[in-house]
Amino acid sequence: QQQVKQSPQSLIVQKGGISIINCAYENTAFDYFPWYQQFPGKGPALLIAIRPDVSEKKEGRFTISFNKSAKQFSLHIMDSQPGDSATYFCAAYTGTASKLTFGTGTRLQVTL
Amino acid sequence: DAGVIQSPRHEVTEMGQEVTLRCKPISGHDYLFWYRQTMMRGLELLIYFNNNVPIDDSGMPEDRFSAKMPNASFSTLKIQPSEPRDSAVYFCASSFSPGTYYGYTFGSGTRLTVV
């Protein structure tokens, strides 16, 4: 059972554009929503995270928007750069299980 | 800190052989996770430990897979016998509190190819 649905599967954005990746979840017990960034040949690395008691969190060019009633959250990358080209995973965590459930990933390519 | 260290980085083995993957977590982290990544299934949690004790192994595919954590600084994932469908990248990750902004720290993975 896929508890965190992520879209799109792949995304091509021009340099300077906005990249948007969306995730939806079903389990209302989730209480922590991180995003991970993975470059080829490397493990995923924590990028930014949010708790459901806030609607938005911004760190530099990266912003998480969170809609608790819709059970959806998204990652926005402003002024996308070629160096942002990577695979992005959303995830959701519940303290009762002490583990993260990952989305299926979005391969982002930022072109010149 | 050197981060989470996995070895080997690449492993090519013949079907039926035993494979052992190794992981050294970050000192002080009390959670350790083993994940498998494939194009078809994405990141799958295989098993995780808390304070060296296995907590949830429901993701282990079958009895051919086993994992141990004999001490706080070392864990192994063993596949015996290996099969071509086990080919994947296996990641180890550690954390001292999974549900915080510190998140997981992943190793660079072991790319396993079973021929």
Tell me what you see in this structure.
Chain A has 112 residues and is mainly beta. Chain A has strands at 4-7, 10-14, 19-25, 33-38, 45-50, 56-59, 62-67, 72-77, 86-94, 99-102, 106-111. Chain A has no helices and 11 strands. In chain A, strands 2, 4, 5, 9, 10 and 11 form a 6-stranded mixed β-sheet that branches. In chain A, a hairpin with a 6-residue loop joins strand 4 and strand 5 (45-50). The N and C termini of chain A lie far apart (38 Å). In chain A, 31% of the residues are buried. Chain B has 115 residues and is mostly beta strands. Helix content of chain B is 0%, strand content 54%. In chain B, strands 2, 4, 5, 6, 9, 10 and 11 form a 7-stranded mixed β-sheet that branches. Chain B has a 4-stranded antiparallel β-sheet with strand order 1-3-8-7, with no helix packed on it. In chain B, a hairpin with a 2-residue loop joins strand 7 and strand 8. The model of chain B has no long low-confidence stretch (mean pLDDT 93).
Shape of chain A: globular
Tell me the span between the first and last alpha carbons of chain A: 38 Å
Helix run count of chain A:
0
C-alpha Rg of chain A (nearest Å): 13 Å
- What is the helix/strand order of chain A? EEEEEEEEEEE
What summary fits the major beta sheet of chain A? 6 strands, mixed
As an assembly, this protein is heterodimer
> How widely separated are the two ends of chain B?
36 Å
What is the structural class of chain A? Answer: mainly beta
Share of helix among residues of chain A?
Answer: under 10%
